[in-house]
Amino acid sequence: MSGDEQLSQLVSVTAKLGPRNIPKIARSLSIPVETARHRLRKQLLSRGIGIQACIDYSKLGLQRTWLMLDFTEEFKGRESKSASALAQAAYLVSYFKTIPDDRFVAQVAIPSSSKQAYEQLLEGLVKAGVLKSYSIHHMAWTRQISMDTKHYDFRRKTWDIDWQLLERTRSSIQEPTIADPRPFDKKDILILKELETDSSLSFIDIASRLRLEVKTLLYHYHSHIERRSFIDRYSIRWLGDPKRRQRYAIMEVRFWFQKLSQNELFLAQEAFSRLPFMRTDSFSMDDGFYLAELTLPLTHYVDILTFLQKNLKSINRKMEIGIVDQNCASRFPIPEQMYDEEYGWVFHPGVALDRFKLLTTTPELSPEAKKRKE
Q1: Are residues 40 and 159 in the same domain?
Q2: Predicted TM-score (pTM) of this structure
């Protein structure tokens, strides 16, 4: 078996078991524990491959929602600070701005019972002069997708894609199942946050960060998190060669569609699922909104567009492309600060708006902006 085949097997097993479970990984691959540990740390993690715990937010009573936000001129250039404030006050978990068209897109994970309340917050931001307008898309499901290692050369740390072969390949699509909320407590949320931030952390390190007894942490992890499957799986993602990451050799690109029918959705999913750079995709049954997130090498951008043009067929005209401005993009872990041990997930639009104003008020604001905020 070649080195790439061995690492491909390691990726597959790690996606199921997680990066901390080295003994089980070793048994699954029939290799010594130290060999498994070396390959994971030195041949994957140190070579631009990342591992992320995929938390099933629906089991926690949260629904992922995409927001298209159009900021007023007073807040242009301050979108990152505004997004950070929304992460603190209003469940925002990621955002990005596109270039050169300057569109701002954010994702929130809100309590299922707070859809109308969240729209009240957005209306409040419009009235406060923060937003010109917005659109909101509640996602029925979101898939976290691992890199396709069949097309990756681990030794050279490059993608080696036979696009003609990829054209002939077909992908089987399985729509994610939506789970009902399951019981959890604050300690579970805190542990999940640490694992989402860095899934390779040891239990001892997590216990130290959270100031928990290791025995208490292990009980919550095994009896709650593991048994109730709050971590759906682990996503193995190509992040690019660390030495070249600042040279714009890596592109973050988002593709989205409006008002897709079920047949059109299948066409989009089938095409995007064949691309080895996929990170996530998600779909709203309410309005047919579909969004795919890709991390790809700049050298393959034109190849991808050509591939999509051939395979999307009639829905090409519905596709919008957003090249991410990596200076205005970020992700945040699960919003544990919004969870109250007595009341559960808490959200009040008026409180969130006041908190947003407090977090975004700076001495540099224009008199007009200050007046509006008052």
Answers
A1: no
A2: 0.89
CATH code for position 251: 3.30.70.920
> How does pLDDT run across 67-124, given as a tens digit for each residue?
999 999 999 999 999 999 999 999 999 999 999 999 999 999 999 899 999 999 999 9
Residues 41 and 148 grouped into a single domain: no
HEC string of the chain equals: CCHHHHHHHHHHHHHHHCCCCHHHHHHHHCCCHHHHHHHHHHHHHHHCEEEEEEECHHHHCEEEEEEEEEECHHHCCCHHHHHHHHHHHCCEEEEEEEECCCCEEEEEEEEHHHHHHHHHHHHHHHHCCCEEEEEEEECCEEEECCCCHHHEECCCCEECCCHHHHHHCCCCCCCCCCCCCCCCCHHHHHHHHHHHHCCCCCHHHHHHHHCCCHHHHHHHHHHHHHCCCCEEEEEEEECCCHHHHHHCCEEEEEEEECCCCHHHHHHHHHHHHCCCCEEEEEEECCCCEEEEEEEEEHHHHHHHHHHHHHHHHHHHHHEEEEEEEEEEEEECCCCHHHEECCCEECCCHHHHHHHHHHHHCCCCCCHHHHHHHC
Is position 21 within any domain? yes
Range of the domain at 316: 143-174+238-324
